Amino acid sequence: MDNLLRVGVISSTHGIKGEVKVFPTTDDLNRFKKLKKVILDTGKEQIDMEISGVRFFKQMVIVKFKGYDNINDIEKYKGKDLLVTREDAVKLEEGEYFIYDLIGCAVVTDEGEDFGTLEEVLQTGANDVYVVKTGNGKEVLLPNIESCILDVNLEDKKITAHILEGLVD
């Protein structure tokens, strides 16, 4: 799955003509406008799907797949992931990373000490927050700001952080 990234989850059908409501798991909702194909992960197999229509409703994306013209054709895929290959993924700016790539990275302090492992990324609006599990099993929240996260090296799966005063009891 390293080459695939999740862009959404089918939450329900929409109408009777084969459209689905998709809960987006991507930062950029508008990326669906440019998306021509996705991979539907059923849990047992991966099906290439061609997108024939996209529109937006509240925080959801209404998607129509080519060849799926009836509610009965698509209903069985509720709760399933929609994936794209890295080649079809949004191009990232410098200093931007896919959350999937950050999970599992070792976190070391700016003094060279092992601090823990990045377990989760919380998206708060102002800045992301890295949830790091330390060697003694504690969870520490590190804000993804310049004064705290100093370097991200995905090749070495290592994040260097300055542990701000007050973040660790």
DSSP strand tally: 12
Approximate shape: elongated
Q: How much strand?
A: over 45%
Helix and strand pattern? EEHEEEHEHEEEEEE
Mean pLDDT: 91
Main sheet, how many strands, which sense, barrel? 6 strands, antiparallel, barrel
Structural class: mainly beta
User: How many distinct helices?
Assistant: 3
Query: What is the rounded Rg?
Result: 19 Å
Instruction: List segments where confidence is low: pLDDT < 50 over at least 5 consecutive residues.
Output: none
Give the distance, in angstroms, between the N- and C-terminal Cα atoms: 37 Å
Strand order, largest beta sheet: 1-2-5-4-3-6
Q: Work out the helicity level.
A: under 10%
Structural description of this entry:
With 169 residues, the chain is mainly beta. The chain contains three helices and twelve strands. The chain has helices at residues 31-34, 71-74, 99-102; strands spanning 4-14, 19-24, 37-41, 46-57, 60-65, 81-85, 106-109, 114-123, 128-134, 139-143, 149-153, 158-161. A six-stranded antiparallel beta barrel has the order 1-2-5-4-3-6. The protein has a six-stranded mixed sheet with strand order 10-9-8-7-12-11, with no helix packed on it. The longest helix has 4 residues, at 31-34. The protein is elongated, with a radius of gyration of 19 Å. The two termini are 37 Å apart.
